[in-house]
Amino acid sequence: MDPVLDNLDLYWDGFLRSLSIIGWSLVGSLLLGTLIAAFRVSPVASLRAFGSAWVTVVRNCPLTIVLFFMAFGLPELGINTSFYVFGVGGLIIYTSAFVCEAIRSGINSVSAGQAEAARAIGLPFTQTLTQVVLPQALRATVPPLGSVQIAMFKNSAVVGAFGVGGDLWSAGRNLTSAQGYAYIPVLTGVAIGYLVITLTGGALLAVIERKVAIAR
Amino acid sequence: MSQTSVLYDAPGPRAVRRARIGTALAILAFLGLAVLVVLRLADRGQFDAELWNPWINPSDDTFSQVWELVGKGLAATLIAASLAIVLSLVVGVLLGVARMMLGRGLRVPVVAWIELFRGLPVVVTIVFVWRAMVEIGIDVGPLPGEPALWYLVIGLTLYNSVIIAEILRAGVGSLPSGQREAALAVGLTNGQAMRSILLPQAFRVMLPALISQLVVVLKDTSLVAVIGLGYLELLRRGNQISQNLDNPIQSLLIVGTIFILINYGLSKLAEYVERRMGRASVSSAGADDQVPAGQGA
User: Fold this and answer.
1) Within-domain flag for B50
2) Which of B82, B99, B261, B263 could form a disulfide with A60 if both were Cys (CB 3.0 to 4.6 A apart)?
3) CB–CB contact A107 B7 (8 Å)
């Protein structure tokens, strides 16, 4: 394990860089996914159509193709920025489709009787939404949303392999191809880095799920 | 529109009018956006015939060549995906049954194996398999096909087999407990109950989830394009073409559309199977800790 122990600082920097990719993608995909979900349940038909088209296209397209589009398609249109922004942008777009579906399934899981009962006792629309429907919907959304985000943590490795630079993945690439270390110990280090991220994420999610679980 | 009925009252005449106005405004906004994009594309010469002709004009010299390459790539993608899903199914069922049937102590390594490969990004697994097998000197030469295919297939199998093992476990878990109790009561052993009572029912329940997993496998074959593994599947063929013809947008559009069409068909098939079986599938029956259908990469 010498290659890993001798280069712990390189791994640490890569780890932090990977966390920053994950952090931005988390925030971005939640925002974009919520927006698309709002489109998909809105009373405006054209927004609904746009929302389902977005989900259908993005969900069935490999992340790699989304990334290639960002990095090689956008420059053709005169949009040039760093690979980091392209990579994070691609990951946000890709994850947003899954976030949207998780949120929509949460809203759908609230039975219509809940809203009907709220209206029957005379609550206005805003109170029906904020006091009755949304609190239940958000709780039901947590488990699927959590799995989506943990899958995104793993997909951040694809963004790394794509060539963002400076993350866990490139730490491994740097050590093997530039410095000539053997692959097995170096890649074991990379794998441990990702395992720390996904297993911690999973444990955190379990805690949150227990906190918000509804007894139904 | 069942989901809107939770959030809204049945709309009255004013709300209907407002929704129509909103629809019109949104259509205008999308059209405006589309026009902007098209103008930009035209401005950068992205509609030039030389970029599109190899793809859409049969009289272009490269037309047949380009589509032949795409055909080869698609075949390579489908071969890798089918090998991976079949192997994953076999290994996954073994892992899943082992996890359910072994005793507390014996189960530990199986659970560790499953958690390990479920937590690793599949792209890391594939590279690891590839590099480690080369470094240790495990020869995949005797297997049919090129070595790169097997690195990819083994990597995909390691990841997807543990997912299938978990889908299977959730499928068995979703069966009423009376099934197993009745089997034991009529004198079947644990193994017999699993083999002839629980697994056949679990397979039925997990069929939609399995088809969705095929979408994941198909998408994940394209990972070879970012790690430089020399297996020329659809996306790598597309990149090859776009490098030669210098038309990345057009080539990616075609390749992406092929992927989307296949995966869309598979998703629809999964939905259809789920509806036909007329009962809750694994994905909605408590396996909430698995990767939601279709994600992956």
Assistant:
1) no
2) B263
3) yes
Partners of residue B22 in chain A, C-beta under 8 Å? 42-44, 47
Same domain as B10, residue B112: no
> What's the mean per-residue pLDDT of chain B?
83
Closest CA to A161 of A194, A184, A114: A194
Which domain covers residue B34, as residue numbers? 2-44
Give the separation between CA A107 and CA B4, rounded to whole angstroms: 9
- Chain B residue numbers touching A155 (CB-CB < 8 A): 121, 295, 297
Tokens linked to B146: 């090129």
Which has the closest alpha carbon to A98: B266, B210, B297? B297
Interface of B with A in 17-36 (CB under 8 A): 19, 22-24, 26-27, 30
- Where residue A88 sits, what CATH number does that domain have? 1.10.3720.10
Name chain A contacts of B40, Cβ cutoff 8 Å. 77-78
A197, B12, B114 from A202: Cα distances, Å: 9, 46, 14
The DSSP secondary structure of B151-213, one letter per residue, reads HHHHHHHHHHHHHHHHHHHHHHHTS-HHHHHHHHHTT--HHHHIIIIIHHHHHHHHHHHHHHH
H or E element that contains A203: helix A183-212
Asked, for residue B290, whether it belongs to a domain, the answer is no
d(CA B249, CA B48): 12
In a domain, B67, yes or no: yes
Q: Among partner residues A63, A104, A115, which is closest to B297 by beta-carbon distance?
A: A63
Q: Which of B182, B204, B201, B183 is nearest to B192 (CA)?
A: B183
Tell me the residue type at B115. E
Q: How far apart are CA A21 and CA B38, in angstroms?
A: 31
Tell me chain A's radius of gyration from C-alpha atoms: 21
Host domain of residue A205? 2-212
Q: How far apart are CA B169 and CA B160, in angstroms?
A: 14
Contact state of B292 with A98 under an 8 Å Cβ cutoff: yes
The number of folded domains in chain A is 1
The letter for the amino acid at A102 is A
Q: Are residues B177 and B268 in the same domain?
A: yes
CB atoms under 10 Å from CB of A180, counted, come to: 8
Cβ of A43 and B8 within 8 Å?
yes
Tokens at residue B276, please? 């036909």
Report how many domains make up chain B. 2
Per-residue pLDDT of chain A (216 residues; tens, 9 = 90+): 566 677 777 888 888 888 999 999 999 999 999 899 888 888 888 888 999 999 999 999 999 999 998 888 888 777 888 888 899 999 999 999 999 999 888 888 888 888 888 888 988 878 888 888 888 888 888 888 988 999 999 999 888 888 777 788 777 777 877 777 778 888 888 888 889 999 999 899 889 888 887 655
Nearest to A73 by CA among B184, B62, B253: B253
CATH number at residue B164: 1.10.3720.10
Q: At what angle do helices B63-101 and B49-56 cross, to 10 degrees?
A: 70
